[in-house]
Amino acid sequence: MSTKKHLYLIAHNIRSLYNVGSMFRTSDAFSVERIYLCGYTGFPPRKEISKTALGAEKEIPWETCPDALELIKELKKQGVKIATLELTSKAKSLDKIKPSFPLALVVGNEIDGVDPKIIKQADFEIMIPMQGTKESLNVAVATGISLYQLNNLR
Asked: Is the pTM of this model over 0.90?
């Protein structure tokens, strides 16, 4: 893998096809080089994805990966750092991280978050500092905020 500051997205067990489409559109905006659609995450062509992706699903390279853990192991062998977006005791605030690249951001299920087995394989965990009463955001919104910040740090 080259020293270019590559940024990838791993979407694991995302239920909503509309969220998947939004992630494609956001990934296009922030120069994500590849999206990995893992577990039961839906993939194009689907009208629900196309509705929110607005064609980005045809622009961003993507692939399906049934086993996210195997994908992560392979990416790590290639020198890719793995960051999970999850509220954990070890998570660092998105506005305080200094990541190294190449980097893959893992986002998880809308209800259950990132699988604990995946979190254990990650190089670090990040979280979005929240100021309101809720502890989380919609997964597509959280992905967009995170990709924006990561894109600015590379």
From this structure: yes
